[in-house]
Write a structure and sequence with these properties.
Strand order of the largest sheet: 2-1-3-7-8-9
InterPro entries: Caspase-like_dom_sf, Caspase-related_regulators, Pept_C14_caspase, Pept_C14_p20
Organism: Bradyrhizobium daqingense
Number of strands: 18
Radius of gyration: 61 Å
Structural class: alpha/beta
Keywords: Coiled coil, Signal
CATH architecture of the domain at 23-244: 3-Layer(aba) Sandwich
Largest sheet: 6 strands, mixed
GO molecular function: cysteine-type endopeptidase activity
Distance between the termini: 173 Å
CATH class of the domain at 23-244: Alpha Beta
Helix content: 40-55%
Oligomer: single chain
Pfam families: Peptidase_C14
């Protein structure tokens, strides 16, 4: 019997030791903050210290926390950690710092990296595959946690050797090839993570709160981390987990073993109470559950459920507040729109009244113009009638002086001169004068109506053709032209004023410029320019000196004006030479004025 007990004790010790060896857990924690070539990061070193402390409290067999690693130091740390994972069941790597994605591959950046061009990542950074290789020997769980999705300053200054090479924002999506491997990103692939406003990032703070829960499966723990970060960042950052595990729960910290025999029933009752509370899911139920069970695994789960309910209540309250604010905004907008419509209606009434007053004023102006035009027409017709009457009187007087023996002829002449009901019989001079009067009425002629169809009258009728759109013959006045001009009720030709005058309705008014201004060639007032000072008299001294030099210079030899004649003919004496007479003795003498003595040309 004693031997059997010793055998049972031996087997129990063997199983306990084997279980301890099976549960060997190792972790490598790296935090890079003090980058040498880009601005320093605030939180990675703090986050690494916090997460490393969490692994140590969780009872990990080996936890190495390293800060601000250069490339050689990071390479050494990964190599040594790979050696420790060979006999481990669970291996975890946590990295906080800068990371970069190039062409779909992720790289972790040590603090001494320069990364001037995109190909430097192959030499100065560490591919994620190198980190995965360090956890590969672990037998049960391989976990890599990357808090490296920050906005990377290297990507902004890095030169591309290939224009088409893609440099992503954040990290790229990965699919682990080894089983039981999980890769947790602080932010979903293609997005960036936040350092937060406190000592630690929201992602690191949630990790140390959720992962150490005994017996909590890692998949559910990272789900809680996701919810916490979304809530704390206003849904701007969403953590994401890549990879897969088997069907069994894989907690970071194993659950406390349940006692055998009769003592197992309390945990079973707690589980049943938890499942019942989970079905109801109200705040009151979870509060009552926590009042009964204050600690333990299910108490932690209950606290998580309460936090979820609180988050949902906060969301609903925020949504209701936003709805009320939107309703208030719509109400105020409607009231403002109503006020705006009233202002618009008032403005429309005022504009209509202004338009009515303007129309009445315009009508008064047009009535005045029409009255003036009608008066000018009446004056023109009266003048034309007066001209005809004067002509008829002159004709009658001439007929009376010719004697009484031609009464019939006189009556015929008077009848011919009398105006017909529709077309008066007018002489060419009358037609000319009436046409000139009508041209003055419509503003196309400024000269007086003389009855002489001169060049001025022809230009006036041509001007009328231009502005009235007619094609009247301007070489002579005709009844056709007279009728066409009479048909125009008002001014046809624009008013043209002389220099120094401007148009004012149908009149020309004198332009008055203020003091210091005058009328220019464009008939506008311009400022009188200041008078320039008189040019100083040219200094005459250099000119006098030059004249003296010319006068004092020796005179140039001039031609003597003498003529040399010989058998070959006569020619002028060359410049600088003179004629000398020769006597019978062969002596030379100056040539006298007679020039009869034989002479020769002498040049000195």
């Amino acid at each position: 019997m004693g031997a059997f007990r010793w055998l049972l004790l031996f087997l129990l010790i063997s199983l306990t030791c084997g279980s301890a060896r099976a549960e060997r857990r190792v972790a490598l924690v790296i935090g890079n903050s003090s980058y040498k070539n880009v601005p320093k990061l605030a939180n990675p070193v703090n986050d690494a210290a916090l997460v490393g402390g969490m692994f140590k409290k969780a009872g990990f067999d080996s936890v190495e926390v390293r800060a601000d690693l250069s490339a050689p130091e990071m390479r050494k740390a990964l190599r040594e950690f790979g050696m420790r994972t060979r006999d481990a069941e669970m291996a975890v790597v946590y990295y906080a710092g800068h990371g970069i994605e190039i062409d779909g591959n992720n790289y972790l950046i040590p603090v001494d990296a320069v990364l001037e061009v995109d190909t430097d990542v192959y030499d100065e950074a560490f591919a994620l595959d190198r980190v995965l290789a360090s956890v590969e020997p672990a037998k049960q769980l391989r976990l890599v946690i990357l808090d490296a999705c920050r906005d990377n300053p290297f990507a902004k200054t890095m030169k591309r050797t290939v224009a088409a090479r893609a440099i992503g924002r954040g990290l790229a999506k990965v699919e682990p090839t080894s089983p039981n491997t999980m890769i947790a990103f602080a932010a979903k692939a293609g997005s960036t993570a936040s350092d937060g406003d406190s000592r630690n990032s929201p992602f690191a703070a949630s990790l140390v709160d959720r992962l150490p829960t005994p017996g909590l499966d890692l998949r559910k723990a990272f789900g809680f981390v996701r919810d916490d970060v979304l809530k704390n960042t206003g849904h701007r950052q969403e953590p994401y987990v890549y990879g897969s595990l088997g069907g069994n729960d894989v907690p970071l910290i194993p659950a406390k073993p349940a006692a055998a025999g009769p003592q197992a029933s309390p945990d079973e009752s707690i589980r049943r109470d938890y499942e019942l509370a989970l079905q109801i899911g109200t705040r009151e139920v979870w509060t009552a559950f926590l009042a009964k069970y204050t600690d333990g695994f299910y108490a932690s789960l209950a606290q998580g459920q309460l936090k979820r309910i609180a988050a949902e209540e906060t969301r609903l309250a925020a949504a209701e507040k936003a709805r009320q604010a939107e309703h208030e905004k719509a109400r105020l907008a409607a009231e403002q729109a109503k006020a705006a419509e009233q202002q618009k209606a008032a403005a429309a009434v005022k504009a209509a009244e202004d338009a009515r007053l303007a129309a009445e004023k315009a009508k008064q102006v047009e009535d005045a113009k029409a009255a003036a035009t009608e008066q000018r027409r009446k004056d023109a017709e009266a003048a034309a009638a007066k001209v005809i009457a004067e002509k008829q009187a002159a004709e009658r007087q001439a007929a009376e002086t010719q004697g009484a023996d031609k009464p019939a002829a006189t009556n015929q002449t008077v009848a011919a001169l009398a105006p017909a009901p529709t077309q008066p019989a007018l002489s060419p001079q009358d037609i000319t004068k009436l046409t000139q009067l009508e041209l003055r009425r419509v503003g196309c002629q400024s000269a007086a109506a003389t009855g002489d169809w001169n060049a001025t009258a022809q230009r006036s009728l041509s001007t009328f053709n231009k502005y009235a759109g007619t094609k009247l013959d301007a070489k002579m006045a005709s009844l056709e032209a007279l009728d066409a001009i009479k048909a125009k009720p008002g001014r046809v030709c624009p008013l043209v004023c002389e220099r120094g005058f401007k148009t004012d309705g149908d009149q020309c008014t004198k332009i008055t410029c203020r003091t210091g201004f005058r009328i220019n060639d464009d008939n506008e007032c311009e400022k009188i320019p200041d008078r320039k000072p008189a040019t100083a008299r040219e200094d005459s001294k250099p000119r006098d000196e030059q004249r003296k030099q010319v006068e004092s210079a020796p005179s140039q030899p001039q031609a003597s004006g003498q003529i040399l004649c010989n058998q070959a003919g006569c020619r002028p004496v060359r410049s600088g030479c003179r004629l000398l007479a020769t006597n019978n003795n062969g002596k030379h003498a100056a040539l006298n004025s007679g020039g009869a003595v034989p002479s020769i040309e002498v040049c000195d």
